[in-house]
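Work Package 3 (structural annotation) set out to generate three-dimensional models for the target panel prioritized at the project kickoff. During this period the team completed the workflow that converts sequence records into discrete structure tokens, so that structures can be stored uniformly alongside our sequence database. As a representative example, we reproduce one entry of 534 residues exactly as it appears in the project archive.
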Amino acid sequence: MRDRFGTVIYVGKARDLRKRVSTYFQPSRRMGWDLKFRALVDGIHDFDYHVVRSEPEALLLEGKLIKEFHPRYNVSFRDDKRFLLLKVNFNDPIPRFTLTRIKQDDGARYFGPFPNSGSLRSTLSLVRRQYHLRGCRPLTPNERDYKHCLYGHLKYCTAPCIGNVTRDQYLDQVKGACDFLEGQCQEMQTHLEAEMKKAAATQDYEKAAQLRDLLADLNRTTKKTNRFQRVPYSLPVAVEPERDLAELGQLLGLPAPPQRIEGIDISNISGTFVVASLVSFRNGRPDRANYRRFRIKSVEGQDDFASVAEVVRRRYTRLLKESSEPQTQPHREDSGEPVAAELQQLVDDVGDAARRKPSRSVTTDSAAADVRKHRAPGELPKRTGPGLPDLIVIDGGRGQLNAACAELEKLGLSHIPILGLAKEFEEIYRPDEKEPLRLSQDSGALKLLQRVRDESHRLANTYNATLRLRKISESLLDEFPNIGERRKAALLKKFGSVQRMRLATVEQLAEVPGFGGKAAAELKAFLEARSTLS
């Protein structure tokens, strides 16, 4: 469900979407609605729908969309928890199936995601028994581990650790299990169904019920589902951005509507991974070619004021330097992002032209015409460099605004209009005004500032999450048996990353406190087995 600006406000699923959606608009039920539900219904302007083949696919797609768009009226799936995956790495000395929630580029083979974790665990237990696979934790089990291995003594595992089978024979067992998980399990399903009917015929109903549940878990786990990829993010656009720019210019007392607006936001988690984003809007639309991301370098801990000051100093010092240097050719990124941004701009122009309605207001039409006269219909902005903005929007209140103004004054750029937009009451703080400005929630100027603020907030949070996921790659050490936080911290302190550990020798690993020659050799073998190059 989308509001009038195209923002996704709710995602839901149902067997019969028509029936479920119709319940939102029944007048007889309106008196029983709570305030949240009433606000949701009042905000609905349009719908998008996706047809899938089964309920598990619907659940996977619902979770993916909610994590992508963060709709304000959804409660479930808004956290960072993911569905379970099944993982097996053929580069391990004796591969084993493990459960994980994060898919990494480590050369392993992944199955899933699986919406029902209970069914997955039940099926994994069945697979281990059927194909005689190990379920122990050690990376390379030996005879000492076998003495205490219940799976080996019960003949559930072929015990490759003591040489009962060769590694090639054991790999064939693992590959057979992989084929089973990919859906080649008709024989097993037929066998379980026959055993269930046989138990029911002999009135052994408890066994029949267990086989029935096991068969249902197997069907749920091996049923083919689509793996939904990341949904392309689409920033909501205004119905008539020229009018919003004209209104904003009049409210702020600017000589002309601001053609270029830049928004700045800071993101961190308890003072760690402090990053910033800078987004650029041209003619009321996102100018993605001039988006920038910053890692805060000079600030320790959680200090939003100092972080904003650093971003303003670095950003506009660079712009001043680039403007003073002669440019022989237009600036283009090697990654090709400006081309993609121009295509997106063209799509936005076409979409806005289709949605544009005739205006009845005369007071802002002349100012809106000033915006349009700089650019012919369908014409794309020139990509010869960003230049200085016509307005800077800081995500924050008086403190963040003062920090930014101080840096602009040092650079001799105090003439650039700047404001701060506080989230709680949507108050607009200006440098020369003591009292904040509050606009109507229906104001097009406020909606434009909110889009700039929300886009900078999204970009900052996305960059922060990227850095955190990159840090999670260090959790590869957690899979190494019998390693604690102290030994893991000692390794990371000495080498800095898992990649550097792979390049170290056994002697260098043995120099780390808590590691002897045997443990260092095992760690070296573990890292080589998990190398992404193998």
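Confidence is low (pLDDT under 50) at residues 229-233, 327-364, 371-385.
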